[in-house]
Amino acid sequence: MKFLFDDESFSFETLRAAGFAHYGGADLGEVIATVQNITEGDEESWHRAWKATAERAQAIGERALADGHRVSAREALLRASNYYRTAEFYLREHPATDPEVKLLSSRSHDAFATAAGLFDTPVEPVAIPYENTTLPGYLFLVDDSGTPRPTVVYTSGYDSTLEESYFAIAAAALSRGYNALAFDGPGQGAALREQKLVFRPDWEAVTTPVVDYAVSRPEIADDKIVLFGYSLGGYLVARAAAFDQRIAALILDDGIHDFHAAFDRMLPPALTQWINEERDDVAVPVLTMLAGANTQVRWALRNGVWAMGATSFADLVRKTQDYTLSGIADRITAHTLILSAENDQFLKGQPEQVEKALTNASTTLVTLTEAEGAGEHCHMGAMGRAHQVIFDWLDSALPAAA
């Protein structure tokens, strides 16, 4: 689905930003006006334009808040948070040291935190114990009654953030009587940017303490804990569920059996062979050349080196080989919804592999299509349709799982 840009990556990321309008994360006019100031494929103009729009929305929100207009402030600050995230997206040349990455990430967090304090339902910032530190999170509650409720635990992906959780799942959950617990794990959001924690393939080491925290909360029904995996999170939560039997249901948006397949799709077979043979003297220059010629490849490689703690592009590609369900998928027993996108440009065919591999789980595979506007990765631009499928399934699956 081409959306306002010919560049595939710019198109997808614009659709992603605009799609959050369904829950107040964007205004279509603002998106269109922003895009008019962006040169096709020019990452610097992308950064400038989205930052300017974010600052404009933030100023509106701050004025509204100062004047006592609670709803207007909340709406503008939610948009600002999403726009700051979008402005930061392509700043990947030196992300660990770039002050602009820190600035935009902090602004996205702060705008969302202020907006969350203006919600009509309780939102609690939480710190989840993890190894020798804590992971930042939010607990979104249906109400303040303390009643134990089914709860969706959000795990984000290769590039998504804690703040994005509200648009990706929490708003839809709250409106249907589900709590949501979201967090930044290693390689994600503030855990990466502030604590320098990088991804790890054994995600059960991350999810187990998150579920431990969840069952300690009286507002969360410990027999109705649902793991929701967003993008790469679709692999991460499936991996975690293979080792934790407390999970009542599993939602993979979308299903990923082998994350390395996304890189195989991008790279010529001969280059993949060089990488596997550790011929980095020839592989890295070719990867660098490909990165210079393609926005999507450039971003995926740069982001991955940072988020996965790789030493080079070739090292990154090899590290992704560890992100697979091979040998463990049959341990998953939770009721599982596997979403698939008809035109997924990253991981087409992976959800079907997951369904075949989950031999000991009750599975439902749903393919959402381009005809209904939901054919892109994670069904960007069709949040309402995706959430209708997710929660209609969950309403039926949870009683059976409990």
UniProtKB/TrEMBL annotation:
<keyword id="KW-0378">Hydrolase</keyword>
<dbReference type="InterPro" id="IPR050261">
    <property type="entry name" value="FrsA_esterase"/>
</dbReference>
<comment type="similarity">
    <text>Belongs to the AB hydrolase superfamily. FUS2 hydrolase family.</text>
</comment>
<keyword id="KW-0645">Protease</keyword>
<dbReference type="GO" id="GO:0004177">
    <property type="term" value="F:aminopeptidase activity"/>
</dbReference>
<dbReference type="InterPro" id="IPR000073">
    <property type="entry name" value="AB_hydrolase_1"/>
</dbReference>
<keyword id="KW-0031">Aminopeptidase</keyword>
<dbReference type="Pfam" id="PF12697">
    <property type="entry name" value="Abhydrolase_6"/>
</dbReference>
<protein>
    <submittedName>
        <fullName>Dipeptidyl aminopeptidase</fullName>
    </submittedName>
</protein>
<feature type="domain" description="AB hydrolase-1">
    <location>
        <begin position="169"/>
        <end position="381"/>
    </location>
</feature>
<dbReference type="InterPro" id="IPR029058">
    <property type="entry name" value="AB_hydrolase_fold"/>
</dbReference>
